[in-house]
Each structure stands twice: as structure tokens, then as C-alpha cells.
Amino acid sequence: MKKLFYYVAMFLATTTGFSSCSDDDDDERHAETELRKQQEMKDLTATYVNDVVYVTYGRLADATESLYGKIETMKSSLSAGSLTQSQIDDVCNTFLEARAWWEKSEAWLYGPAEVHGIDPHIDTWPLSRDGLATFLKNNRNTIFAPGYDINEAIEQVSRNNNEDSWLGFHGLEFILFRDGSPRTVSNFSGEETAAEFAGSGVDGKLELDFALAVAGDLRDHCYWLEVGWKGESAPAERIARCQERGFTLTTQGSYTGQALLNPGSGSPYTSWRNVLATIIDSGCMNIAQEVSDQKMGQVWRCATGQANTGAEADDPNYIESPYSYKSFTDFYDNIVSIKNALYGNIDGSSYHASSIMAYLTKYKPELAAEIQSGLDASFAALDVCLQGRPFVLIASSGTKQELDNVESAMTAINTLNTTLNEAKDWIIAN
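^ Imelysin family protein, sequence as received from the core. Prediction below:
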């Protein structure tokens, strides 16, 4: 009996010891996994900031800088009577290049774009043609009087224009494009023919005076985006120009790139998981929802008799890029921006080893697969739309098939958004 008690006691002591060791091993493995995840989240954030955001905003600033210079030359050529169609076409192509980089940046509109109101300042639509006609007519002999100073004109247009839709990309688009094509030499050699400008005396010369000021303001605000993210590592001349304009360069006391790379005390971002949640939620999900519900949704609901009314009423004219016929291209590039943010590169065929997609593939592969499926479906649906008529024409006379194609794209993008939300929640919890 004593011997039996001894063996039982020894057995219990041994198994208790094994259990304790097992618990210790589990805790140690969990700690090691968490340390590894922390490092991986840090690394993928560095890839996102340095290889995606910084590069995109740098190229956007380059393109708008080039656009300003080419409009300046175009303006001089018109005055000299030597303007050519190839010159106009080149300006329009440069505009579209800048536009593409902007649309490919919309998966990170948090930070300076949001806090400093840069997004609405340079990208509000629909354009008020009545308002623009009045503005140009009233300022021919003030802001744009003979011998005017261009930097003062940039400030005046930026400050005194009470319609953001006259500024930025859409003001320039109206000046440069009509019916999906670059305007012609004869268009700029005479008076503006749009009905809203009848009797205003607004001609091509005045339009290019305005376009140059708007292009300068657009360039400066794109400098601001680059500097607001990169800080002192941005080109010195761009920092100086932002300071000359009186722009506040930091957001919540820091440059956005530095804040993302240094979460915790003193940063708006509390942890690496909070950083990733911001990239997905405030960045990718924000633009996915906007494309599906607003950019495409308002027009689609109006065209199908399902328009929202009241304070949040849908507008049948809420059509992005109607003069260049590039609405669907804008939407496609918005999804490209989501892909770039998740892939950790720009227009890559596969994701970077340090990226959100790589992280999810390693730790939650089924979610990564769903995201990839959502991206593929969104691109495929938008490709169908791109092969048909421009969105602005569908808005006014869309067939059932055309509207169904738009709905399919909206559905695919909304499904992607739902999956991104699941990924964000999983990252926060794990």
C-alpha cells in the first residue's frame, strides 16, 4: 500500500512537471512568434512607405512640375502664333501621366492629403462651368491683367477661388480636353465655345493664363504631399517652395512617413498593428468604398432610378474626368493603388517579400487568397467597362448591359472592400 502510494505520488509529480514545461514551451513559442511578427510588420511598413508612397508622390510631383513647364511653353507659343497640335497633345499626355499618378496614390489619402485638405483642393468635381466663366470674365483685368506676376496669380487663384472644382485636375482637364480628345489649335486661337461662356469674351489666351496658375497651384500641392510624407529627405527646392507658400508641413506634429515608421510614444500610431490597420482601413478600404459607392454609385443609382434623395442626394453629374473620357481609367488606377499598397511595390506582377500580402499569405493564407481574388475580379470587371463607351455617356444614355457592367464592377470592388475589412480585423486580433 505504501509502495503504491509512492508510485502514484511520483506519477503525479512527473505529469505536473511535464505540464508546466509544456506551458512554458507554449509561452516561449508565442513570444518568439510575436517578436517575429513585430519585425515583419516593421519591415513591410518600411517597404510600403519607402517603395510605394514615397516613390508615387515623387513621380506625381515630377509629373505636375513637368506639366507646369509645358503649359508655360504652350502659353508662350500661342502668344507668338506658333502653337502646334503636337504641342497641345504633349501637354495633354503629360496631364494624363500626372493624373494617373494621383489616382494611383488614392489608397493613402490619410495624412496630409486629408488633414490639410489637399485632396478636395486639387480633385473636386463636377466642375462649375458657370462659375468658371464668371471667374475668368471678372478677373481678366485683375489677376490676369497684362504683365501679371505668375506667383501672385497662383496665390490669388488658390485663395480667392470659392469653387475647388475650378482648381486642380478638373479645371485643367476642362481647359485641355473636350469629348475625350485634346482641344485643337483653333480652339485656343478663338473664344471659348461652351454655352456657359457665351458673351463672356473668354478666349484661349485667358484660359491658358488660368491654366498656368492652376497648374502651378497643383504642382505646389503635390510638392506638399511629397514633403508632408518624406520630410527633410524631400528635394530641398520643393521644401522651399512649400515654405514659400506657407504650407504646414507636418501632420499631428510629425511627417507622416516618419510617424508610420515609428509607432508608439509621440506618434499618432500606437503600435505596428495600428499602422497596418491604418494602411488597410484609412487607405485601401477608404478608396474602395469611394469608388464603388460614390464615384460609380451615384451615377449608377441615378441612371437606374434608385437615386438617394435628401441631404445625401445623388448627383447624376457626379462624373469624374468627363472631358477626357477617363473615368473608368481613374477607377482602375484607384484599384491599382490598393494593389500597390498591399503588394509593397508599384505595378508589380507579384508581391514584395515584405508586404501585407506576404504577411497574410504566411499567417492567414485563406484571407490573402480572397484579397487576390477580389483584386482580380475588380480589375476584370473594370476591363469590361473600359472596352465600352465612356462613363459620361453611359450616365446619360446607358443601355441595360452597360449599366449591368458598371454594377458588376461596383459589386466586385465592394466585395474586395469587405475582405479587406476582415483582414484588418484579423491583423488587429492576431
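The chain has 18 helices and two strands.
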